[in-house]
Design brief:
This protein is an all-alpha fold and 263 residues long. The protein is 79% helix and 0% strand.
């Protein structure tokens, strides 16, 4: 196993080139840093950067192990009791998301780069710009809002690994305290990782080669995550919310750029 891990980077460099792999590693570090800071966006940033130099399905596959490990870290940072209480509170949105996400993973092999980028860009940009302009649902009816957020989040998650934005819309509308918001993101995204992985094993996107690189990606992501948590501890709730939305605007705009201009 150790030999396979040591050989995997060389095989990836031979297939995709040294510069694209270096860019992908940098993107995963940045994704870990932003996730540590605001509680999410590892998939959004890592895939947005990685898919500019690698096939989208490869960039998505590299997320598998870091997604699980970083979300476990985030979920239990305040203890197991808090994580369990969060799961019970949001069990409807989590359950719907898991089913939809597993089904949507089957679409990824059929999406070309432009379609993939357009779907992600439109969703992220519409959500974040509306929030920055002041639109914000107040006390959304539940469990209806949970079902809607879980369905849309599962669709985006299955094709990209980024099932966060619709879930974030629900959580932002509930105006949760900062640490509870971060913990809820971690629990929701952690559970979403399992059908994401299962679905992409079934499609062949996750295989021995991509899993090996995914394991190695724990290093840049983990370093970025720890540095980001140090920033997070200094942010108040409103600054955190504004930073979340700005990150989503940038990510959505980058996906739209890729869809329109390519690259």
């Amino acid at each position: 196993m150790i030999d396979f891990l040591l050989d995997a980077p060389g095989e990836a460099v031979a297939r995709y080139g040294a510069f694209p792999m270096a860019v992908a590693v940098g993107g995963f570090f940045l994704g870990g840093f932003v996730k540590g800071t605001i509680g999410f966006a590892l998939p959004t940033i890592a895939v947005a950067i990685g898919a500019t130099v690698l096939p989208p399905e490869v960039a998505v596959a590299y997320l598998a192990v870091p997604s699980v490990v970083m979300n476990v870290w985030q979920s239990v940072r305040d203890g197991m009791a808090g994580a369990w209480a969060t799961f019970i509170e949001y069990r409807v949105v989590i359950g719907v998301m898991l089913v939809t996400l597993l089904a949507a993973t089957q679409l990824l092999p059929y999406l070309d780069r432009a379609s993939f980028s357009a779907i992600m860009g439109i969703g992220l940009t519409a959500f974040s710009v509306a929030q920055l302009l002041g639109w914000r649902p107040v006390d959304p009816p539940r469990p209806q809002a949970d079902v809607l957020a879980g369905s849309v989040g599962g669709f985006f998650g299955g094709i990209s690994g980024a099932w966060g934005p619709p879930i974030l819309l629900l959580l932002l509308s509930l105006d949760l305290p900062k640490r509870q918001f971060i913990r809820t993101c971690g629990v929701t995204f952690l559970l979403g990782s399992f059908p994401f992985i299962a679905g992409h094993v079934a499609t062949g996107v996750l295989n021995m080669q991509t899993v090996a690189i995914s394991l190695l990606m724990l290093v840049p992501v983990g370093i970025g995550m720890r540095l980001g948590q140090q920033v997070q501890d200094r942010l108040d709730g409103e600054r955190l919310r504004t930073l979340i939305l700005l990150v989503l605007v940038v990510a959505g705009a980058n996906f739209l750029r890729q869809a329109i201009f390519g690259g």
